[in-house]
Amino acid sequence: MTVGPLRRHDFVRYAGSSGDFNPIHYDEPYAQAAGNPSVFGQGMFTAGIAAHMVADWFGQVL
């Protein structure tokens, strides 16, 4: 499964819908100051992508 391309505004839009406005997800200098190479997606954003992959793989289970 290929996802993307993901852009910075995708993380910002997800932050708006989830209420997770931690700048580590969209502010490059902030993320780097915290020791990360770049920004990264919120945990539930990543989990949503993983759930989509699993659902595609197994299909709908009733």
Entry keywords:
62 residues, elongated
Description:
The chain is mainly α and 62 residues long. It has helices spanning 8-18, 28-33, 43-58. 5% of the residues are buried. The mean pLDDT is 88.
Gyration radius, rounded: 14 Å
Number of strands: 0
Whole-number mean pLDDT: 88
* Global shape: elongated
Helix/strand class: mainly alpha
Rounded to the nearest angstrom, the distance between the terminal CA atoms is 23 Å
How many strands, which pairing sense, and closed or not: the largest β-sheet? none
* Separate helix tally: 3
Low-confidence segments, ≥5 residues, pLDDT <50?
A: none
**Portion of residues in helices?**
40-55%
Task: Spell out the helices and strands N to C.
Answer: HHH
Amount of beta strand:
under 5%
